[in-house]
Amino acid sequence: MVRPYLPLKALRAFEASARHLSFTRAAAELCVTQAAVSHQVKLLESQLRVVLFTRLPRGLMLTHEGEMLLPVMKDSFDQITHALDRLGESNYREVLNVGAVGTFAVGWLLPRLADFQERYPFIDLRLSTHNNRTDMAAEGLDFAIRFGTGAWHGIAAQPLLPASLSVMCTPEIATRLKAPGDVVGETWLRSYRVDEWPQWLLAAGLSSSVSVPRSIVFDSSIAMMEAAQQGAGIALAPPSMFSRQLESGALVQPFSASVSLGGYWLTHLQSRVETHAMTCFREWLSIATSA
């Protein structure tokens, strides 16, 4: 097959700019000027007859066409890099970029990373955490582990673990909680999801329309549960992710009532071609979470 002319400089400039959402940072990575990167991207847009970026006062935003092109370009350059690494090194290693919601990363994944490394020593795992919001294309992630229902546009999702939410607090606060209704007398530690506590109240056999007591809102379950350990209030979180704190007695679960509003999922872009490292990680996760 005769391939058409491939503007490799322009494609490389686009891929770097799309990852950083910045011509300036792309230029620093490619060791050229910002003007050169911008010029190459304009040439590519002209050749393709599409607009790949929306230029903003501070940075860039991918257009629909840019979002379609980025994963293809990233995969292609990654595969070229991997192939060159294999030719240049006798001990080939493959990089795997994974983003994980902080609760899962700290509560489940980190204690098991040694097992993964022992089984797959050729994989260099690069782990980042997020608060359940992530842009895999822009961040260059192979996988993202999220909490939810498994429905994300353009995303393939594999269920990992259920994550029912239960009340947890310090043993001292628990002495004041004789019945589920007593939670309204305590400070609620909660996420931005306003339906979590009302749904738990229903599961505990109470009315969901009770007046919301004093509360503190967190964008991270890790921070929320640290506050719970410090006695700042009572929190709703998945006990399975905080088993160490429950086993040590730092936290207790005063009531058996729980509510399920989602679970943990392994996700990747539907357009992402699965690498060998991705296959190994996905299969390892599947086995480990079902054990």
Automatic annotation (TrEMBL):
GO terms for biological process: DNA-templated transcription. Signal peptide: none annotated. It holds the Pfam family HTH_1. Keywords: Activator, DNA-binding, Transcription, Transcription regulation. One of its GO terms (molecular function) is sequence-specific DNA binding. PROSITE patterns: HTH_LYSR. Gene3D superfamilies: Periplasmic binding protein-like II, Winged helix-like DNA-binding domain superfamily/Winged helix DNA-binding domain. Residues 6-63 form the HTH lysR-type domain. InterPro entries: LysR-type_TF_proteobact-type, LysR_HTH_N, LysR_subst-bd, WH-like_DNA-bd_sf, WH_DNA-bd_sf. Belongs to the LysR transcriptional regulatory family. This is LysR family transcriptional regulator. It comes from Vreelandella populi. The lineage of its organism: Bacteria, Pseudomonadati, Pseudomonadota, Gammaproteobacteria, Oceanospirillales.
